Protein backbone atom coordinates (compact mmCIF):
# COMPACT_ATOMS: atom_id res chain seq x y z
CA UNK A 1 0.00 0.00 0.00
CA UNK A 2 1.37 3.41 -0.95
CA UNK A 3 1.79 6.15 1.63
CA UNK A 4 -1.00 8.67 1.21
CA UNK A 5 -0.90 12.13 2.72
CA UNK A 6 -4.33 13.68 2.45
CA UNK A 7 -5.12 17.35 3.04
CA UNK A 8 -2.37 17.83 5.59
CA UNK A 9 -2.31 21.08 7.51
CA UNK A 10 0.56 21.87 9.85
CA UNK A 11 1.06 25.08 11.77
CA UNK A 12 3.75 26.32 14.11
CA UNK A 13 1.91 28.98 16.08
CA UNK A 14 0.29 31.17 13.45
CA UNK A 15 2.67 30.10 10.71
CA UNK A 16 1.19 27.58 8.28
CA UNK A 17 3.84 25.21 6.95
CA UNK A 18 1.38 22.97 5.07
CA UNK A 19 -2.14 23.82 3.99
CA UNK A 20 -4.29 21.04 2.52
CA UNK A 21 -1.18 19.30 1.27
CA UNK A 22 -1.70 15.94 -0.43
CA UNK A 23 0.88 13.55 -1.79
CA UNK A 24 1.09 9.88 -2.68
CA UNK A 25 4.45 8.24 -1.99
CA UNK A 26 4.97 5.06 -3.95
CA UNK A 27 6.04 1.92 -2.17
CA UNK A 28 9.23 0.39 -3.56
CA UNK A 29 10.40 3.65 -5.13
CA UNK A 30 12.66 6.55 -4.18
CA UNK A 31 10.88 9.86 -3.60
CA UNK A 32 13.02 12.98 -3.34
CA UNK A 33 11.56 15.91 -1.42
CA UNK A 34 13.01 19.16 -2.69
CA UNK A 35 12.34 22.86 -2.18
CA UNK A 36 13.92 25.95 -0.72
CA UNK A 37 15.23 25.99 2.81
CA UNK A 38 12.39 26.46 5.26
CA UNK A 39 9.70 24.98 3.02
CA UNK A 40 8.93 22.20 5.44
CA UNK A 41 10.86 19.17 4.15
CA UNK A 42 12.19 18.19 7.56
CA UNK A 43 8.82 18.92 9.15
CA UNK A 44 7.14 16.58 6.67
CA UNK A 45 9.49 13.67 7.30
CA UNK A 46 9.23 14.23 11.06
CA UNK A 47 5.44 14.00 10.68
CA UNK A 48 5.82 10.74 8.72
CA UNK A 49 8.12 9.38 11.44
CA UNK A 50 5.55 10.28 14.09
CA UNK A 51 7.89 12.78 15.74
CA UNK A 52 5.75 15.80 14.95
CA UNK A 53 1.99 16.29 15.31
CA UNK A 54 -0.12 17.79 12.56
CA UNK A 55 -3.25 19.87 12.79
CA UNK A 56 -5.51 18.41 10.12
CA UNK A 57 -5.51 15.72 7.48
CA UNK A 58 -4.94 12.00 7.28
CA UNK A 59 -1.92 9.87 6.54
CA UNK A 60 -2.33 6.22 5.55
CA UNK A 61 0.10 3.48 4.63
CA UNK A 62 2.38 3.81 7.64
CA UNK A 63 0.54 1.40 9.92
CA UNK A 64 2.91 -1.27 11.31
CA UNK A 65 5.76 -0.01 9.15
CA UNK A 66 9.25 0.14 10.60
CA UNK A 67 11.09 3.29 9.58
CA UNK A 68 14.84 3.82 9.74
CA UNK A 69 16.40 7.22 9.31
CA UNK A 70 19.50 9.23 8.72
CA UNK A 71 18.78 12.60 10.33
CA UNK A 72 20.70 15.75 9.39
CA UNK A 73 22.89 14.94 12.38
CA UNK A 74 24.60 11.55 12.59
CA UNK A 75 23.16 10.68 16.02
CA UNK A 76 25.75 7.99 16.67
CA UNK A 77 26.95 6.78 20.08
CA UNK A 78 30.26 8.62 19.99
CA UNK A 79 32.16 6.38 22.41
CA UNK A 80 31.24 3.18 20.60
CA UNK A 81 32.81 1.79 17.45
CA UNK A 82 31.16 1.77 14.02
CA UNK A 83 30.58 -1.97 14.35
CA UNK A 84 28.85 -1.58 17.74
CA UNK A 85 26.77 1.40 16.61
CA UNK A 86 25.43 -0.68 13.75
CA UNK A 87 25.05 -3.98 15.62
CA UNK A 88 22.84 -2.26 18.22
CA UNK A 89 20.17 -1.70 15.56
CA UNK A 90 20.67 -4.92 13.59
CA UNK A 91 19.94 -7.43 16.28
CA UNK A 92 21.64 -10.75 16.87
CA UNK A 93 20.77 -12.29 13.53
CA UNK A 94 23.27 -10.00 11.78
CA UNK A 95 26.87 -11.08 12.34
CA UNK A 96 29.82 -8.78 12.94
CA UNK A 97 31.30 -10.21 9.75
CA UNK A 98 28.28 -9.02 7.74
CA UNK A 99 28.51 -5.53 9.24
CA UNK A 100 32.22 -5.42 8.59
CA UNK A 101 31.65 -6.40 4.95
CA UNK A 102 29.24 -3.49 4.50
CA UNK A 103 31.67 -1.06 6.12
CA UNK A 104 34.38 -2.28 3.79
CA UNK A 105 32.23 -1.47 0.75
CA UNK A 106 32.39 2.23 1.55
CA UNK A 107 35.93 2.43 2.79
CA UNK A 108 35.50 2.08 6.55
CA UNK A 109 37.03 -1.30 7.31
CA UNK A 110 40.23 0.14 8.81
CA UNK A 111 38.22 2.32 11.18
CA UNK A 112 35.50 -0.12 12.14
CA UNK A 113 36.68 -0.75 15.71
CA UNK A 114 37.64 2.80 16.65
CA UNK A 115 35.27 4.94 18.75
CA UNK A 116 33.31 6.94 16.20
CA UNK A 117 34.30 10.18 17.98
CA UNK A 118 37.76 9.70 16.47
CA UNK A 119 36.41 9.49 12.89
CA UNK A 120 36.04 12.38 10.46
CA UNK A 121 32.64 13.93 9.74
CA UNK A 122 32.41 12.14 6.40
CA UNK A 123 33.24 8.79 7.96
CA UNK A 124 30.61 9.24 10.67
CA UNK A 125 28.06 10.10 7.99
CA UNK A 126 28.80 6.81 6.23
CA UNK A 127 28.42 4.89 9.49
CA UNK A 128 25.00 6.52 10.01
CA UNK A 129 24.00 5.59 6.45
CA UNK A 130 25.01 1.95 6.84
CA UNK A 131 23.26 1.76 10.21
CA UNK A 132 20.07 3.00 8.57
CA UNK A 133 20.38 0.57 5.64
CA UNK A 134 21.10 -2.42 7.88
CA UNK A 135 18.26 -1.73 10.30
CA UNK A 136 15.87 -3.97 8.32
CA UNK A 137 13.13 -1.43 8.02
CA UNK A 138 10.18 -1.16 5.66
CA UNK A 139 10.76 2.52 4.92
CA UNK A 140 14.02 4.45 4.77
CA UNK A 141 14.04 8.20 5.35
CA UNK A 142 17.12 10.28 4.61
CA UNK A 143 17.43 13.97 5.52
CA UNK A 144 20.25 15.31 3.33
CA UNK A 145 22.38 12.20 3.87
CA UNK A 146 25.19 13.17 1.50
CA UNK A 147 25.61 16.77 2.66
CA UNK A 148 29.22 17.59 3.42
CA UNK A 149 30.74 14.53 1.72
CA UNK A 150 33.52 15.16 -0.78
CA UNK A 151 32.72 14.41 -4.43
CA UNK A 152 34.56 11.07 -4.58
CA UNK A 153 32.98 9.77 -1.39
CA UNK A 154 29.58 11.02 -2.53
CA UNK A 155 29.94 9.06 -5.78
CA UNK A 156 30.89 5.89 -3.92
CA UNK A 157 28.06 6.26 -1.43
CA UNK A 158 25.53 6.83 -4.24
CA UNK A 159 26.78 3.68 -5.97
CA UNK A 160 26.47 1.77 -2.70
CA UNK A 161 23.01 3.17 -1.96
CA UNK A 162 21.68 2.38 -5.43
CA UNK A 163 22.47 -1.27 -4.91
CA UNK A 164 21.07 -1.35 -1.38
CA UNK A 165 17.81 0.53 -1.86
CA UNK A 166 16.66 -1.16 -5.04
CA UNK A 167 12.96 -2.00 -4.63
CA UNK A 168 12.72 -0.28 -1.24
CA UNK A 169 10.54 2.60 -0.17
CA UNK A 170 12.88 5.53 0.33
CA UNK A 171 12.13 9.18 1.05
CA UNK A 172 15.10 11.47 0.67
CA UNK A 173 15.32 15.17 1.41
CA UNK A 174 17.93 16.80 -0.78
CA UNK A 175 18.90 20.15 -2.28
CA UNK A 176 20.87 18.41 -5.04
CA UNK A 177 18.84 17.50 -8.12
CA UNK A 178 21.74 15.46 -9.54
CA UNK A 179 21.78 13.35 -6.40
CA UNK A 180 18.01 12.82 -6.73
CA UNK A 181 18.37 11.83 -10.37
CA UNK A 182 21.27 9.47 -9.71
CA UNK A 183 19.09 7.64 -7.19
CA UNK A 184 16.30 7.37 -9.82
CA UNK A 185 13.97 9.38 -7.62
CA UNK A 186 10.52 10.69 -8.26
CA UNK A 187 11.10 14.37 -7.54
CA UNK A 188 8.55 16.26 -5.45
CA UNK A 189 9.13 19.99 -5.30
CA UNK A 190 7.30 21.26 -2.23
CA UNK A 191 7.36 24.83 -3.60
CA UNK A 192 4.90 23.76 -6.33
CA UNK A 193 2.30 22.95 -3.70
CA UNK A 194 2.09 26.50 -2.39
N1 LIG B 1 9.67 23.29 16.27
C1 LIG B 1 9.42 24.37 15.52
N2 LIG B 1 8.81 25.44 16.01
C2 LIG B 1 8.53 26.51 15.25
N3 LIG B 1 8.83 26.61 13.94
C3 LIG B 1 9.46 25.58 13.39
C4 LIG B 1 9.79 24.39 14.13
N4 LIG B 1 10.41 23.52 13.30
C5 LIG B 1 10.46 24.12 12.10
N5 LIG B 1 9.89 25.35 12.14
C6 LIG B 1 9.74 26.28 11.02
O1 LIG B 1 9.02 25.60 10.01
C7 LIG B 1 9.53 25.93 8.72
C8 LIG B 1 9.93 24.66 8.01
O2 LIG B 1 11.10 24.11 8.63
P1 LIG B 1 11.81 22.80 8.09
O3 LIG B 1 12.98 22.55 8.96
O4 LIG B 1 10.79 21.73 7.96
O5 LIG B 1 12.28 23.28 6.64
P2 LIG B 1 13.21 22.56 5.58
O6 LIG B 1 12.54 22.70 4.26
O7 LIG B 1 13.53 21.18 6.04
O8 LIG B 1 14.54 23.45 5.63
P3 LIG B 1 16.08 23.07 5.36
O9 LIG B 1 16.18 22.79 3.89
O10 LIG B 1 16.81 24.32 5.77
O11 LIG B 1 16.42 21.89 6.24
C9 LIG B 1 10.67 26.90 8.95
O12 LIG B 1 10.18 28.20 8.79
C10 LIG B 1 11.07 26.66 10.39
O13 LIG B 1 11.61 27.81 10.97
From TrEMBL:
PANTHER family per UniProt: BICARBONATE TRANSPORT ATP-BINDING PROTEIN CMPC (PTHR42781:SF8), SPERMIDINE/PUTRESCINE IMPORT ATP-BINDING PROTEIN POTA (PTHR42781)
Segments forming domain ABC transporter: 3-194
Signal peptide: none
Name of the protein described by the UniProt record: ATP-binding cassette domain-containing protein
Gene3D superfamilies attached to this UniProt entry: P-loop containing nucleotide triphosphate hydrolases
UniProt keyword list: ATP-binding, Nucleotide-binding, Transport
PROSITE patterns registered for this protein in UniProt: ABC_TRANSPORTER_1, ABC_TRANSPORTER_2
GO terms for MF: ATP binding; ATP hydrolysis activity
Amino acid sequence: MNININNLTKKYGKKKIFKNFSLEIEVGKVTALMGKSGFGKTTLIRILMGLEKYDEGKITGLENQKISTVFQEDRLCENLSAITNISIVCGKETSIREISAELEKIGLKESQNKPVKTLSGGMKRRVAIIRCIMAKSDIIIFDEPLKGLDETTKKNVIRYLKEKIRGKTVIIVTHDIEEARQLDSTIVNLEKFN
